[in-house]
Design goal:
This is ADP,ATP carrier protein. The chain is mainly α. It is 78% helix and 0% strand. Helix 2 runs antiparallel to helix 7, helix 2 (21-51) packs across helix 8 and helix 4 runs antiparallel to helix 7 (153-183).
Length: 500
């Protein structure tokens, strides 16, 4: 009776079949816990980065790329182990990051206590000298106020480490979870259900942001709560494969037909695409130490995956560009450490409210009616408009509005559409190529944006209006790429359906 009632509640928001309910709900709650953990620590991470100086932000993004190059192979490796199921691999990834957050709590608390007895208390993660808190100046004065010269090496190392690690956590956990979700759903069910699953992530963002606002006084202890949330994500990830046997049987011919549109890799795919009932058999005869290179080879051998990579790279470039603009504007207009931390959390929670409403009421309808092409073109168009707006009015109010609009469109429309791009590829391409694209290509885009922003920031003397205009050509290329990619996905989806 209780299960029937629960299914009835879910059916109010989405059309879900009985065999899909368990995987849908476990996916929903897994994303809820992952995003809650991320947004609980995000203000702490961003404020720690600002304390090291705005001029060092691009360098942190390049460092994030280097860390990703080291860590991504292990993420692909764990999914390729022949004696480890995909569900168990996802569980271990989430648990690993849970334990790592506990370690960072110990390091952060130790570095804060050792930095200055007079400047730190047990209740706040970061405080600054009162002179600097009251100081209102331009970009140059702020950059000189905060920097590495004002802190010890241990303090700097922990802040850098947390910034890089939280970014890695966000990429790997979300990409790995989506890979598992896509593995038990096809394009049709994804169009219906991805919006509801994404609502779990948005609800997690809202909860994490509000918790960070209300519990800001506990400072680094937020890391412990985030670790608990990641452990809950690990537990719920176990159920993503429950009750999906019927769906998997329907997906087998679709996966097999994917090799028909990639002539160059046809023979390779035939040896790897085995029945879904034995998901580990495709790697049984291979050394599992080379999965990241297999992912790269799958990408380079497929024009479709190369196109997807270009789209995601451009997405990362523009998103990171917006991040630098947001942090720069807020850092120059809000001088209080606590004020910046609170504003970051308020923007995140404000955004989450609109995203949640859109995902529960609009995503499924937009994807089924407007289609993938419209979905993935929406955010590039909004990004173009936002850059023009920031060039005219570079203040924190406009930043908040533009960030809200961009993220609402991204997570209500474009992100679910982006995940649908992978429903027309094979199992190997989802777990190896997709994770490689989501992690490595994403970080390459971040690094490119960091280099571009650092060059423009120095050349244009930190003028946010002029800097924004230089991002417009990238947005135009992004729009063109999204349009052609969406049309290609529709063609592949129709081809697979007709061949079943």
């Amino acid at each position: 009776m209780g299960r029937s009632t629960f299914e009835a509640v879910v059916s109010v928001f989405v059309t879900v079949h009985p065999h899909e309910t368990s995987a849908l709900l476990h996916s929903f709650f897994c994303f809820f816990f992952v995003l809650s953990a991320y947004f609980v620590v995000l203000p702490l991470r961003d404020e720690g980065a600002i304390s090291l100086g705005l001029s060092n932000l691009p360098g942190l993004f390049v460092g994030s790329l280097l860390l990703t190059l080291i860590a991504a192979p292990f993420s692909s490796l764990i999914f390729s182990l022949p004696n480890l199921s995909k569900g168990k691999a996802l569980f271990l990834i989430h648990r690993f990051f849970s334990v790592s957050l506990i370690l960072f709590f110990i390091l952060w608390h130790s570095s804060s206590a050792g930095y200055s007895k007079s400047n730190f208390t047990g209740s706040m993660p970061l405080t600054y000298p009162s002179k600097e808190e009251r100081k209102i100046g331009d970009q140059g004065s702020l950059t000189s106020s905060f920097g590495w010269d004002n802190h010890g090496w241990f303090y700097i190392s922990v802040r850098i480490g947390l910034f890089l690690w939280v970014a890695l956590l966000n990429l790997i956990t979300i990409s790995s979870t989506w890979a598992r979700v896509i593995d038990v759903m096809d394009s049709e069910s994804g169009s219906r259900l991805f919006g509801f699953i994404g609502a779990g992530a948005t609800l997690g963002q809202l909860f994490g942001s509000l918790f960070a606002i209300g519990m800001a006084f506990v400072g680094p202890f937020l890391l412990l709560f985030a670790a608990l949330l990641m452990e809950l994500a690990a537990q719920t990830s176990r159920g993503i494969n429950c009750g999906t046997s019927h769906a998997e049987e329907k997906l087998s011919p679709i996966r097999k037909s994917d090799s028909n549109h990639e002539n160059k890799t046809d023979e390779i795919q035939k040896t790897e695409h085995t029945p879904r009932g034995s998901p580990n058999s495709s790697t049984s005869g291979k050394l599992p130490i080379w999965p990241i290179f297999e992912g790269l080879w799958l990408i380079l051998s497929s024009t479709y995956l190369l196109h997807v990579s270009l789209f995601i790279w451009l997405s990362a470039v523009v998103s990171s560009f917006f991040y630098f603009q947001k942090v720069s504007v807020i850092a120059t207009t809000v001088t209080s450490s606590a004020g910046r931390r609170k504003l970051f959390a308020q923007i995140n929670s404000f955004i989450a409210v609109f995203i949640l409403g859109g995902q529960l009421s609009l995503t499924g309808r937009i994807l089924t009616i407007a289609g993938v092409t419209t979905a993935i073109c929406a955010t590039p168009f909004v990004g173009f408009v936002n850059l023009v707006t920031l060039a005219v009015w570079p203040n924190w109010v406009v930043v908040a509005i533009c960030e809200t609009l961009r993220k609402v469109v991204t997570y209500v429309v474009t992100r679910p559409g982006r995940e649908l791009l992978f429903t027309v590829v094979s199992e190997d391409e989802k777990y190896k190529a997709k994770v490689c694209i989501d992690v490595l290509v994403q970080r390459l885009g971040d690094a490119a944006a960091a280099g571009m922003y650092k060059m423009l920031f120095g050349t244009l003397n930190g003028n946010p209006s002029t800097v924004s205009l230089y991002g417009l050509p990238v947005c135009l290329l992004w729009i063109v790429s999204a349009y052609s990619l969406g049309r290609r996905q529709v063609q592949l989806s129709k081809h697979q359906i007709s061949s079943t």
